[in-house]
Design goal:
About 45% of the residues lie in helices and about 15% in strands. By secondary structure, it is α/β, with parallel strands linked by helices. The structure holds BIS(adenosine)-5'-pentaphosphate and magnesium ion (MG). The site of BIS(adenosine)-5'-pentaphosphate has 35 residues, from α1, α2, α3, β6 and α9.
Length: about 220
Amino acid sequence: MNSTAKFIILLGPPGAGKGTQAKILHQRFGMVHVASGDLFRENIAKQTPLGVLAKSFMDKGELVPDDVTVRMVMERIAKPDCARGVVFDGFPRTDAQAQALDAALARENKKIGAVLWVNVRDQELVARLSARWICSLDGAVYNLITNPPRVAGKCDLDDSSLVQRDDDKPAAVQRRLQVFNNQTKPLLEYYRAAGLVHEIQGEQPIDRVQADIVRVAEKL
Ligand code: AP5
Ligand code: MG
């Protein structure tokens, strides 16, 4: 991929593969991966006040309020590494977040280059999330069925133990899907109006999804 700064949003429901694809883009092309969920989980692990607040919403599958979410992400993208471009994963999730992001980028004469709508059916999302395990140390993502670790229960990269996310319990998964449909999916119209949406068929093997994403990103 060429070296122009690219600001790309991966928009998709819980379990669509946003984190999986963003991590590969980071490894292959050095794109900076900004995932609001990962930033919250780092705060939870460090037991910061933001982490305590976020956990109370996340465990129920609800969105963390816009003001704290926007502040956290804006602080992250103000860091120098993000000037080279960013893959956003899980942000924005509401109209207010989308507008805050547009405004912040505009202040730097930057803008979103593409919104990749990673489309996966609900039935498949539920199956993926119930089989997801993540590394307790670095958050690397596995799937017992489609993307298993080499050694059961251990991260391929650092041998740490794998754990399940608290919000992958069935009740929280159902609520996350509802919240996505009610509050985040409408963003597609916001970005379609700006001509930015590219649909990615998310129900393909991970490498095929990656190839489709790279094809769009290369044209930016
Ligand atoms: P967040 O962490 O953003 O979670 P999410 O959007 O619900 O998405 P997931 O991380 O569950 O799925 P993913 O699309 O990354 O899929 P993955 O690659 O892991 O948010 C969590 C919570 O934080 C929210 O509910 C909310 O409370 C809060 N939050 C976060 N951001 C917020 C914001 N902006 N505003 C307010 N609140 C916010 O893949 C899933 C599984 O499938 C894995 O096991 C993987 O190995 C497997 N897999 C991946 N791709 C494939 C494939 N192609 N084929 C088969 N299996 C696959
Ligand atoms: Mg994720």
